[in-house]
Design brief:
about 40% helix
Length: about 45
């Protein structure tokens, strides 16, 4: 049995669809310019 890695997409078709979606997403800088709050950072830095 082949081990399946955790991925966002399972095949090339899904990858192309996800790429199109991400191309149209706003960057954090664009979101800030529109006076909205971007998503929070998903990790904590170790000091």
């Amino acid at each position: 049995m082949k081990k399946i890695e955790n991925t966002m997409v399972r095949n090339m078709k899904d990858l192309k669809e996800q790429s199109k979606i991400m191309e149209n997403m706003s960057t954090n800088q664009q979101i800030k310019q529109s006076e909205q709050k971007p998503d929070p950072i998903q990790y904590t830095s170790k000091k």
